[in-house]
Amino acid sequence: MSTTTQQPADASDLTRVTDLLGGPDVLRTCPSSQLDVHRLLKTGLPQKALDHLARTINLVKGGRHFEDAFGMTYRTYQRRKAPGKLPLSPEQSSKTWTFARILAKATEVFGTQDAAEQWISEPVMGLDRQIPLELLQTPAGVELVNAFLTRLEYGVYT
Questions:
Q1: How far, in Å, CA of 72 to CA of 91, rounded?
Q2: What does residue 124 show for φ and ψ, rounded to 5 degrees?
Q3: Would 6 be classed as within a structural domain?
Q4: Which residues constitute the domain of residue 65?
Q5: What is the pTM of this model?
Q6: d(CA 39, CA 111)
Q7: Domain annotation covers residue 158
Q8: Of 43, 107, 117, 152, which has the fewest beta carbons less than 10 angstroms from its beta carbon?
Q9: What is the tally of structural domains in the chain?
């Protein structure tokens, strides 16, 4: 008989990501585990979560880098903002959550959100001169960016 155990998510990491998305008031929940996050993303983030995140990030103001960050065009986002729209799709929710998670981690590593946004949008030597934002387009790229941030967090620069 096998049992499945769930690794506990770091509560402070989940809180930082949740805050970027508008907090429990916007999300209507406060995920405390990766399984909670999975359920939230499968159901779809509320449009207000993306609205909140987009308002607080200079990197995507005016539609710049919007598609890279959230996996939808700025025009699609504008159409979705009409009242009565459904939640984001699971794919859009996942892209939005992933961007918020990486931004939260980069902010922790670099000290400010402005520094994190600058880092995420410029070529990084330790990532073979790739732009982290562009790497977030694939799961493999997300892993590379996350691993690199973890190395920076622990002072390992190579």
A1: 10
A2: -120, 125
A3: no
A4: 11-153
A5: 0.89
A6: 30
A7: no
A8: 43
A9: 1
Q: What is the largest CA-CA distance in the chain?
A: 55
Tokens 């990491």 correspond to what residue? 13
Q: For residues 113 and 106, what is the distance between their CA atoms, to the nearest angstrom? A: 8
Whole-Å CA distances, 42 to 37, 57, 151, 156: 8, 24, 30, 35
Q: How far apart are CA 147 and CA 144, in angstroms?
A: 5
* CB-based contact 150:138 (threshold 8 Å): no
Q: What are phi and psi of 157, to 5 degrees?
A: -95, -5
From the list 44, 67, 52, the residue with the least C-alpha distance to 18 is 52
Task: Spell out a b/e string for 15-32, using b for 16 or more CB atoms within 10 Å of the CB, else e.
Answer: bbbbebbbeeebbeeebe
Q: Provide φ and ψ at 130, rounded to 5°.
A: -85, 155
- Taking the chain (158 residues) in runs of 10, the rounded mean pLDDT of each run is 42 92 94 95 95 94 91 89 81 96 97 97 96 96 97 83
Q: Which tokens belong to 119?
A: 């880092």
Q: Torsion-angle region of residue 13: left (phi > 0), alpha (psi -120 to 50) or beta?
A: alpha
pLDDT at 1: 38
Place of tokens 């997300």: 142
Which residues touch 55 (CB under 8 Å, ≥6 apart)? Answer: none
